[in-house]
Amino acid sequence: MEPGGTSADVLLQRPWLPVSISGWRLLTKSWFGETAYHILLTDVHCVWEERMDSVALQKRAQELNRRLRAPVKAFFSHLCEVVQPCLSGSDARPDSEAQISLARQDNGNISIKLKSELAGLPFYWEFHCTPAPVTVVCVQLVRPLLVMSHLLQRQVEQLGGLLGRKDAEIQDYRENGATLSRERLQTDVFEEQTYREDFMSKTLPLLCSEQPDAHGFNADLQRLYGAVVTRGNTRKRKLSEERSAEEDQPAATEKEADVPSSLGGSVTNTEEDVQEDAAGAKMADKPAAVQQSLPVTSKTAERPSSKPKKKKVVGLFR
After folding, report:
1. Are 35 and 57 in contact (CB under 8 A)?
2. What span, in angstroms and rounded, lies between the C-alpha atoms of 187 and 207?
3. Residues of the chain falling short of pLDDT 50
4. Sheet holding 47-52, edge to edge
5. CA angle at 275 for the pair 273 and 276, rounded to the nearest 5°
6. What are the pLDDT digits (tens) for 124-150?
7. Per residue in 228-239, pLDDT tens?
8. Which of 88, 122, 127, 199 could be bridged to 112 by S-S, CB 3.0 to 4.6 A?
9. What are residue 65's phi and psi, to 5 degrees?
């Protein structure tokens, strides 16, 4: 699987995970294949990415590790074991001696440096992450977040309607003499507009403050993100199949239209051939007498005809 092809689709299925590297709190998602990887990082101000295939991996490994003679699969498996826990937010470290650091460069790029040990020798690696194209940002982050916001908005609207019906039910109980056994369980009637104004005034300042986990995805949001992108891919695949079916249908119709014409032409020729063969067969089957009559007819035609007798004119005068 090449990093520039289907890895983008696989990466889309992965949730954004909060991580901390060298004091930088980021959201990351990553895909590691057999000899390729694709990673995305964002601090909600910018999105960085890096894609590498086996050729690029081999070249960078030789630049950073002059004494390395191992094949790509050998050192790449080690790289995955060391890096994947760091990029997934896991506290577990397979290699306790591994050191990882992150630095932002003057040109806006991000460099993640890794130092570990491979076969008793130091192993160095660097991730050179550059700002991601707008298309990648929209596909991997903006579009799913917009769908998530619409989905959550609809959920809020349905919950508001449910609370309104619950209030009507409680009011009906009260009008029929029902009372609460515990006064502390009593609640006020739900007013949607009042609730929204109170929620925005109290919660929004907390989200906009510089809290460490303000931009993180919790488990519920990660599941929601996964459901949104899975549904989007299913719909895109269905539309692609329908479009392919519509494109194939005219071609099939033209092919079916060509078949009768070609068959008709061959049938017509065959009928003519059959008629010619039948005529020849009839000529061959004629009796000898009929065939001998032909010269007799010709002789009769050559015999001089007798002069017609003159008729007497019969009229008023004889």
Report:
1. yes
2. 27
3. 1-5, 214, 259, 261-270, 274, 281-282, 284-302, 313-318
4. 17-21, 24-32, 37-42, 47-52, 121-131, 110-118, 99-104
5. 65
6. 999 999 999 999 999 999 999 999 999
7. 888 877 776 677
8. 127
9. -135, 90
Q: How far is CA 247 from CA 237, 239, 242, 252, in A?
A: 15, 12, 9, 9
Sequential DSSP letters for the chain: --TTTTHHHHHHHSPPEEEEETTEEEEEEEEE-SS-EEEEEE-SS-EEEEEE-HHHHHHHHHHH-TT----HHHHHHHHHHHHHHHHTT----S-TT-EEEEEE-TTS-EEEEEEEEETTEEEEEEEEEEEPPHHHHIIIIIHHHHHHHHHHHHHHHHHHHHHHHHHHHHHHHHHTT---S-GGG--PPP-HHHHHHHHHHHHHHHHHS--TTTT---HHHHHHHHHHHHHHHHHHHHHHHHHHHHHHHHHHHHHHHHHHHHHHHHHHHHHHHHHHHHHHHHHHHS-HHHHHHHHHHHHHHHSPPPPPPPPPP-SS--
